[in-house]
Design a protein that fits this description.
Number of strands: 12
CATH superfamily: Class I glutamine amidotransferase (GATase) domain
Number of helices: 5
CATH architecture: 3-Layer(aba) Sandwich
Strand content: 25-35%
Distance between the termini: 9 Å
Bound molecules: glutamine
Largest sheet: 7 strands, mixed
Order of helices and strands: EHEEHHEHEEEEEEEEH
Structural class: alpha/beta
Radius of gyration: 15 Å
């Protein structure tokens, strides 16, 4: 069983280590081309900078391939930047991100918690998981979920985790928390 972690920028190795910890060594593969996605059972889009990661995904062909696989039911999880890219709609700032994958019924806002609160940790109640240490770094949030998308965690009235069928989105970084429960939860979709 192989799980692809989109490997251009950001918290790639941290996600890979957690996937390996849950599924066994060598399960996680870094994805930098559409071919790297062949045969993967799930994929994760890590945090980083959405303009950069989005641009590299598009120029490499990973973007279109991921969208196609996601529509066919591939379990796909986006953390932070990944949450932005999974959304169907974005705020003004996401215009600089460029085209979004448009797979989840939600409207996201980039840098939703402002500059004075760039990075922080909060224990939040996550539906299906319980109280979880959530690490936020210049995090987005969803202003709105609709259709089949459901909010599974909120902070200060904003949606910071959401789920829709085979898709999972978190504004925070479970791969930096030292807690494997979120990775177990996602990989439980396999
Ligand atoms: N603020 C970044 C963006 O808008 C996301 C930050 C992150 O992924 N940690 O792309």
């Amino acid at each position: 069983m192989r799980v692809g972690v989109i490997g251009f920028q950001g918290a790639v190795s941290e996600h890979m280590e957690m996937v390996d910890a849950v599924l066994g060594r060598g399960s996680a593969v870094a994805v930098r081309s559409a071919e790297d996605l062949e045969g993967v059972s799930a994929a994760i889009i890590p945090g980083g900078e959405s303009t950069t990661i989005g641009g590299l995904m598009r120029s490499s062909g990973v973007f279109n391939k991921l969208r196609e696989l996601g529509k066919k039911g591939l379990p796909l999880w986006g953390t932070c930047t990944g949450m932005i890219l999974l959304a169907k709609k974005g705020d003004e700032q996401t215009k600089r991100t460029g085209e979004l994958l448009g797979l989840m019924d939600m409207k996201v806002r980039r840098n939703a918690f402002g500059r004075q609160k760039e990075s922080f940790e909060e224990k939040l109640q996550v539906k299906g998981i319980g109280k979880f240490p959530c690490v936020f770094i210049r995090a987005p949030a969803a202003d709105e979920v609709y259709g089949k998308c459901k909010a599974i965690a909120r902070f200060e009235g904003r949606i910071v985790a959401a789920e829709q069928d085979n898709f999972l989105a978190t504004a925070f970084h479970p791969e930096l928390s030292g807690d494997l429960r979120f990775h177990r939860y996602f990989l439980g979709k396999l």
